[in-house]
Amino acid sequence: MIWGKKVAGGALAAVLVATGTGLATAVPAEAAVAKYKCKAEVHLDLGRPKATSSCKKSGSGKKVSKQRVKLVCDVVRGRGNPHEIPWVLFGPWKKPGEKSTVMCGFSSFTRSWSVETKA
Predict the structure, then answer these.
(1) What is this structure's pTM?
(2) Per-residue pLDDT tens over the stretch 41-51
(3) CA 93, CA 52: separation in Å to the nearest integer?
(4) What is the per-residue pLDDT for 4?
(5) In the prediction, which pLDDT does 12 show?
(6) How far is Cα 82 from Cα 38, in angstroms, rounded to an integer?
(7) What's the sign of the alpha-carbon dihedral 78, 84, 86, 92?
(8) Largest Cα–Cα distance of the chain, in whole Å?
(9) Residue ranges in 34-117 assigned as alpha helix (H)
């Protein structure tokens, strides 16, 4: 009877040690999340404003899991009395190493652009 309790106690200790080592190895992986610096650029493509965002690894950046570009265009409407309407466009969510791109339509002018990120 005592022999059975020792075996059961040993098996329980082995399970607890295995669980503890699994938790100990999971913590450094989380602590080693890369930091990125993101930037957005705008240029004309066939007369239309085109914005592109990308992120590069940097020690002084912030944690980023996804990024996209935000482009605000002034769309000209009306022929007799032309007026401008701000139009906000978003690029697709991409991983930090990939580029996110979006374009305004014709008869548009660039108002502003930026990068949006998710941690």
Answers:
(1) 0.66
(2) 999 988 899 99
(3) 12
(4) 52
(5) 45
(6) 36
(7) positive
(8) 99
(9) none
Can you say whether residue 26 is alpha, beta or left, with left for phi > 0 and alpha for psi between -120 and 50 degrees? Answer: alpha
d(CA 52, CA 16): 50
Nearest in space to 66 (alpha carbons), one of 38, 89, 40: 38
**HSE-up (13 A, CA, CB side) for residue 23:** 6
pLDDT in tens, 62-74: 899 999 999 999 9
Q: How far is the C-alpha of 28 from the C-alpha of 43, rounded, in Å?
A: 41
- State the DSSP code for 100: E
Q: How many whole angstroms separate alpha carbon 52 and alpha carbon 72? A: 13
Cα–Cα distance between 96 and 58 in angstroms, integer? 11
Place of tokens 């990939």: 98
